[in-house]
Every structure is written in structure tokens, then in C-alpha cells.
Write a structure and sequence with these properties.
The protein has 136 residues and is α+β, with helices and mostly antiparallel strands. Helix content is 37%, strand content 11%. The protein has a three-stranded antiparallel sheet with strand order 1-2-3, with no helix packed on it. The two termini are 19 Å apart.
Amino acid sequence: MGDIANKGKEAEFELVHAFLERLWQRWESKRWNPKLLAVPGNHDLTRPKSLRAPHKDLLSSHRKPTVGEVIWGEDPDDRYRPIIEKGFANYLAWWEEQGPRRPAVQEGDLPGEFCAVIPGKGGQKLGIMGLNNGCR
């Protein structure tokens, strides 16, 4: 699941949550137990009203390798990560609300990135990776 919202607004995620609640109830009545995995898309990102220099850097990071090095580096003074996390704050709040309906995941570097292993029948396992491409 991706592009859960249109403009990344909290109200949009609330609508999706209400819709999914109806689906979960239906599935539970049939004794189905699906798990939800979601990676935010570009529409799940709340965009700032005006772009400052760091926002412009992020938008062109594919052409500026030094920006990517800072984003994925270990620098605790990184000026880009707070912008990314703020942009995905509504998605992250929605994702936390999904609680037990999500499988156990190992979180990645950016909001929405994860690795998960889903157990199946007969000892089979399915590995899934979610990669957030919304700001790259």
C-alpha cells in the first residue's frame, strides 16, 4: 500500500483509517488475519508552504551527491532529516495507529522503510522490503 493520502493531511489519514477499520471488521468476521504493510508515496508527504534552501536541496538530491551523503550519513546535526520526518509526520502517526495489524518490521533509515519476514504455511517465509522513494 502506498500513496495513502493525497496531500499528506491528517484528515486524509483519518479517512483511510476509518475505511480500513470497516475492512478489518469484515475480514475478522470471516476469520481472516491479514497484515498491513505500507510505504508512503509522494502524496503522503506534507509539503511546506514555502521552500527554503534545504527543501530545494532535497528536491534535487538525485543531482547533488553531497546532499545524499548528508541524508544517509551519521551526522547528528543533519539539517535534512528533521525536514523529512516533519513531512512524513502524519503518515508516521497513522502507521503507529495500525498497531497489531502490522507485522513485526525492522525499520529503515527513512520514514516508511522496512524489512519484514512473513511466516507462511508449511514453514515457508516471505521477505518483504519497503523502500521510501518519496523524497529521493
